[in-house]
Amino acid sequence: MWVRIPPSVPPLPVVSTVPATSSPFIGYPADRLLGAFRDPTAAAGAAAALVADGIPSKDVSILRGEDGAARLDGTGATHGPVGRTRRLVSFTLMDQLPDLAWYEAAVRDGGAVVMVRVRGDAKKRAAIAIVREHGGHFLNYYGRFATEEVSRWSGPEPEVSDLLKR
Fold first, then answer.
1. What pTM does this model have?
2. Closest CA to 29 of 166, 150, 147
3. What is the DSSP letter of 24?
4. Does residue 90 surpass a pLDDT of 70?
5. Residue-level pLDDT at 145
6. DSSP reduced 3-state for 72
7. pLDDT of 133
8. 153 near 36, Cβ under 8 Å?
9. Is residue 12 part of a domain?
10. Is there a domain that residue 7 lies in?
11. In this structure, how many other beta carbons lie within 10 angstroms of the beta carbon of residue 102?
12. What is the Cα–Cα distance from 142 to 144, expressed in whole angstroms?
């Protein structure tokens, strides 16, 4: 499930009625920082802090539950042959894209992923600091032409295919 946090609304869990298979597929998350959270409440706190820091609420998403896992769809399986083909092509071109399977596993294990659209080094550094302050780990920034590993996975690794491990 993904949730947009308006600046005036406290972070609360939201239940989606949209079936997972109709969720928008996240192809390449250009200009976005992704961070995994073991605690969805901490993810909501990070999202609220990002908005309070001046990032527009439309640029901050919390991915959780079946809907969030389906949007991440690390192998493309949820989105059928087209999704699988898209992931296969992406895996050959982008070194960090297999990490989406790790984010999906984090969500399926009851956690959440914060995805925030930021551009520019200063804004990116500020967003990284906020996500870390709230307990985010496994931070990756997906730029237009390159990906940046900000921090590695901490704690027990999720169950993902050996092909998707670095």
1. 0.72
2. 147
3. P
4. no
5. 78
6. helix
7. 97
8. yes
9. no
10. no
11. 23
12. 7
> Is 100:131 a contact under the CB 8 Å cutoff?
no
Does the pLDDT at position 83 exceed 70?
Answer: no
Q: Is residue 21 part of a domain?
A: no
Q: Which residues span the domain enclosing 92?
A: 29-154
Tokens of 57: 């609420």
Inter-residue contact 30 to 143 (CB < 8 Å) = yes
Q: Which two tokens stand for residue 145?
A: 């032409």
pLDDT > 70 fraction of the chain, expressed in percent and rounded: 64
Please check whether residue 148 lies inside any domain of the structure.
yes
Bridge partners (DSSP) listed for residue 140: 34, 149
CATH number at 67 reads 3.30.70
Give the whole-angstrom CA distance, residue 23 versus residue 25: 6
pLDDT at 124 over 50: yes
Residues 110 and 116 sit within 8 Å (Cβ to Cβ): no
pLDDT at 95 over 80: no
